[in-house]
Amino acid sequence: MPDRPEPVLDVRDLKTVFKTRTGEVHAVNSISFDLRPGELLGVVGESGSGKSVTMMSLIGLLPSPPAQIRGGTVTFEGRNLLTVPEADLRKIRGRRIGFVFQDPMTSLNPVFTVGDQIIEPIRKHMRLDRKAARARALELMQLVGIPDAARRLTDYPHQFSGGMRQRVMIAIALACDPDILIADEPTTALDVTIQAQILDLVHDLREKLGMAIVWITHDLGVIAGIADRVMVMYGGQVVEQAPVKELFARPRHPYTRALLKTIPSVRGARAPKLTVIEGQPPILGAAPEACSFRDRCPYRFAACDAANPPRFEVGPRHDAACFWNFDRDAPRDAAPAGEALNA
Amino acid sequence: MLDAQPRPDGRSLVEIRDLRMWFPIRTGLLKRHTGNVKAVDGVSFDIREGETLGLVGESGCGKSTCGRAILRLYEITGGSVKIDGQEIGDAGPNTLRRMRPTMQMVFQDPQASLNPRMTVARIIGEPLDEHTKMSRREKTAKVHDLMDQVGLNRAFADRYPHEFSGGQRQRIGIARALALNPKFIVCDEPIAALDVSIQAQVVNLLEELQAELGLTYLFISHDLSMVRHIATRVAVMYLGKVAELAPREELYGEPLHPYTRALLSAVPEPDPEAMGGSNRTILKGDVPSPSNPPEGCNFCTRCPDVMEVCHRVDPEFRQVRPGRWVACHLFEEGASSPSNRADTESMGDTA
């Protein structure tokens, strides 16, 4: 794809396994994706689909044991993050790649002031003196819209509301001007009116700072509003990937199609009965040898039991891991070699 | 049936008038009573037989406290709660115990509300032990019936809660609530802990059971789109008070209270076709503390349409159109005069 800029992050065939007393859990099964400069990639999936584990794997945030990365490459600035020494990785984390987690209550340290917690990464990574770091912290708090920032620097996390704590988390993540921001369900713990404030803030910050963002969520509504491109995950795999408008207009994986139908809307027409995805998500005891959605899929046919579908190209920058061809409403022809994306 | 409005002659099964639930704040060495958290502060509404009343609002608005207070899981501070004609607001333990089978609850977190040391059969059968004199055989049969009804395999009756998924655990909670043939069930965020694909399964089950058994629900949720799906009428709470109460389509089609409007516009839209990007209202600031609510209207600190009067006078919750109740000064003119609102007036009318 020569017309697109070089990716800032390129993940190929990432595999992560957890070893537990009762056996292995194959949480991430050969995931490949890339992230372009300045783009916002939405990652959607239900709990257990592997979306958080994927992101934590690629910057070495998973404790090992029990986690074990079984393979793949994560290319960031020409280096494979899976093999760089821990000391180098530590410099990349926080400085070049920032994080925001779901629960702002538990990710802030209750015994330090908010100011200390913003200043710490600035001093560590940017080697600024105390005064300059404090000035930078103040600037960040203003950037994320915390009113009366100078006074609030010396407040403790419990003195902040949930929405304000999440703004603090975003300020910490942005402290060193990262190239990539990974946000894991950053608005899930917040009320809708506060979520709307944070989404608005992210819009502004993207315009001002232009970093690439990975936004993990289970809420397709949030994705529709902010993402450029969406990756849908199921059973530790990417099942569909497309630009946001394309995904909502032409979903090409049965899981995405069902997911879009199960969510009622507050606007538009109201369905008399909700569409249900029958059954349960798969138990990831082994690497998949057949399609992991087949037990819940209305389109299931022989091919789905025989092999795990690769990601077929189904449109411009749009791929889906399904043997069914929705455009012709027929099974896909035996995969032509050139069509499979992650052979 | 799912779309059917309750029969027009549907009587009120639950009548709540001026319900108040204040929690005392005690400070200092002597634990002196220095203030109150007014979690529910003067709430009035009716729930008609066979309908689902959705109760929505953001965290801390008092919706869960309200649901629990209605079932008298708290000693309420004041007001009246009538269920099936029986006043239970000030009822003693014996009356309450007699009433318990009529009114049941489904909790948010199926993990926390099921005893991990009890088998599914014992969990579902426990209300039968408490309130009926069934023989062991009758009980087993009833438990199996209940499991069928909520779509659980009866072969799993001797398993423990941890062996089930979240959605199945919620089915266990629903089966337990159904055990005593209740008329009224308070569902407190029953789907909040579940994944989207499982939420629809549980909501459809609740709807099927309602159609089959003629149940009446109070459905407490922060998920406005799911409430639009399941509720007949919707009440919106803010800071301990009901801001607006209206039939579902009217509330979502034309929200009157500025808070309802802001709340609905804040919900992200999963359908790009229906996206109304231009007229979004983003509220400034946070919800004030219920221990120190603002003077006048409790929404005046964040209201985009705030007027001078809002800082002084708490607006009355009144019927501004048939079936539509709002507590807002914007709708003062043309509203029924406050004096003709007697306690006997039905708050369920859609006439």
Automatic annotation (TrEMBL), chain A:
The UniProt keywords, alphabetically, are:
ATP-binding, Cell membrane, Membrane, Nucleotide-binding, Transport
Domain of life according to the entry: Bacteria
Location of the protein in the cell: Cell inner membrane
Indicate how the chain sits in the lipid bilayer. Peripheral membrane protein
User: A single Gene Ontology molecular function, please?
Assistant: ATP hydrolysis activity
Q: Which residues form the ABC transporter domain?
A: 12-260
Q: What GO CC annotations are associated with the protein?
A: plasma membrane
Gene3D superfamilies the UniProt entry points to: P-loop containing nucleotide triphosphate hydrolases
Listed GO biological process terms: peptide transport; transmembrane transport
NCBIfam families, from UniProt?
A: oligo_HPY (TIGR01727)
Q: Which family does it belong to?
A: Belongs to the ABC transporter superfamily.
Q: What is this protein called?
A: Peptide/nickel transport system ATP-binding protein/oligopeptide transport system ATP-binding protein
Instruction: Name its species.
Output: Palleronia aestuarii
> Lineage of the source organism?
Bacteria, Pseudomonadati, Pseudomonadota, Alphaproteobacteria, Rhodobacterales
UniProtKB/TrEMBL annotation, chain B:
Q: Where in the numbering of this chain does the ABC transporter domain appear? A: 25-264
What is the protein's membrane topology class?
Answer: Peripheral membrane protein
Q: Could you tell me which SUPFAM superfamilies the record lists for this protein? A: P-loop containing nucleoside triphosphate hydrolases
Q: Name one GO cellular component term.
A: plasma membrane
InterPro entries, alphabetically? AAA+_ATPase, ABC_transp_ATP-bind, ABC_transporter-like_ATP-bd, ABC_transporter-like_CS, Oligopep_ABC_C, P-loop_NTPase
Q: Does the keyword Nucleotide-binding apply?
A: yes
Entry's transmembrane regions: none
Compartment(s) where it occurs, according to its Swiss-Prot or TrEMBL record: Cell inner membrane
Keywords from the named record? ATP-binding, Nucleotide-binding, Transport
What are the BP-aspect GO terms? peptide transport; transmembrane transport
Q: Which family does it belong to?
A: Belongs to the ABC transporter superfamily.
Annotated protein name in UniProt: Oligopeptide transport system ATP-binding protein
Organism encoding this protein? Palleronia aestuarii
